[in-house]
Amino acid sequence: MLPTFALSAATAVLLSSSRVNAEIELNLDDDTSIKNAAATIAYDMMTYYKGNQSGGIPGVLPGPPPNPSWGYYWWESGAMWGSLIDYWYYTGDSSYNDDAMAGIQWQTGANNDMMPANWSQSMGNDDQGFWGMTAMTAAETKFPDPPSDRPGWLALAQAVFNTQAVRIDNATCGGGLRWQVYPYLTGYNYKNSIANGCFFNIGARLARYTNNETYAQYAEETWNWVTSVGYMDKDYNIYDGAHIEENCTDINKVQFSYNSGVYLLGAATMYNHTNGSAIWKERVDGLLNATFKNFFPTGDIAYEIACEAKLSCTTDMFSFKAFLTRWLAGTTKMAPYTYDLIMPYLKASAVAAAKQCSGPSPFDGRTCGLSWSKGTDWDGTSGVGQQMAAMSAIFVNLVQHTLAPVTNSTGGTSVGNSAAGSGSTTSLDAVKPPSTGDRVGAGMVTTVVLVGMTGMFGWMSL
């Protein structure tokens, strides 16, 4: 069902669908306009989801590629639910809460650790991590709690953290998580920034939520490892990753906006948790400066530097600006002094994203593209990632009306379990060996890097 408050806006867009470059109407001085714009884009985004229809699989988008070729990897479904939880939190519209609740709970897996067996053939630590961050968002925003016979949001986040903590591999490269969970998966010999960034992010947020310093210690150690190995340099540029055979020295220097975002929110959360410590403020400031420089290169509009210029993005990459804008907004709550620094970028990006939602197909004059800096000149791309990114860029401009994420001591109600995930296993006997078909869909963006440095991103390896 289309949200009630959005009916008039969506109807107006539909009636004018024959216009060229119809775009999404947006007035940032009017909260109702912001909500209507976000609601229209959310509605269109959810038409891709079939898990609430007869024969569909709850919780997951169609895919992975090549079935269908335009399909999505499992991680992006988890990321989409996180964006819709934030959508509810910012706008108050609960239209998709039931879908989010059912979808996440359907994908928890036999051990309630966000590792369903059906996805074992493409299970990366980053894939699991995105679902864990979604669960953490649900706990922090007081998203409606699941039934008592189902794992709480906090317990799910703790399960993801616990299963990953035991996978830290000190025998190679001096620490850090590998990209993939299982040794037979392509990429098991690669350690990347996003897998470790998700773990860092969840650890920081669990530390703040529970006030348990064990989580904070892991977050600090992860930060130290990422910087010591050179994945994050002295200027706070964050690079993709490297191979264990080279002792993680063959760093691929492609940069993605979600890497900056995931570490920024984690660092801001640590700043908050440590009552404004100088070292975490220094890290927040450094990451902010690098983020503005790298991902807003031509002004205040977010830009995916790795692929946007030639629209050479993979399906995954079209979604990255969704996380960048959401985590920038989250940073303003964890480190309030950043609000005046960040908001001009979020405002300009929202206006630009709304204009780029001007494509004729499939949403009749309001299809969102990636190239926000092109204004109403739609770039010809469409999909869940583009819709999610535009929706997020718009609704975060309501951040000033939201409360800070809760904790156990400030009103949090989510049921936790500090031992969650302890029954999980990464034993090779737990899953069948992957077939050639399984390997084709082994998800997340770093596949591109591993296919060969001379491929799509080879020119970025400095």
UniProtKB/TrEMBL annotation:
EC class name: hydrolase
Signal peptide boundaries: 1-22
Annotated catalysed reactions: Random hydrolysis of (1->6)-alpha-D-mannosidic linkages in unbranched (1->6)-mannans
SUPFAM superfamilies cross-referenced by the UniProt entry: Six-hairpin glycosidases
Listed Low complexity bias regions: 410-427
Region (Disordered): 410-436
One function term, GO molecular function aspect: mannan endo-1,6-alpha-mannosidase activity
GO biological process assignments: carbohydrate catabolic process; fungal-type cell wall biogenesis
Domain of life where this protein originates: Eukaryota
Keyword hit for Membrane: yes
Keyword tags: Glycoprotein, Glycosidase, Hydrolase, Membrane, Signal
GO cellular component, one term: endomembrane system
Localization in the cell: Endomembrane system
EC number: 3.2.1.101
InterPro entries cross-referenced by the UniProt entry: 6-hairpin_glycosidase_sf, Glyco_hydro_76, Mannan-1_6-alpha_mannosidase
Keyword GTP-binding: no
Family, per entry: Belongs to the glycosyl hydrolase 76 family.
Stated name of the protein: Mannan endo-1,6-alpha-mannosidase
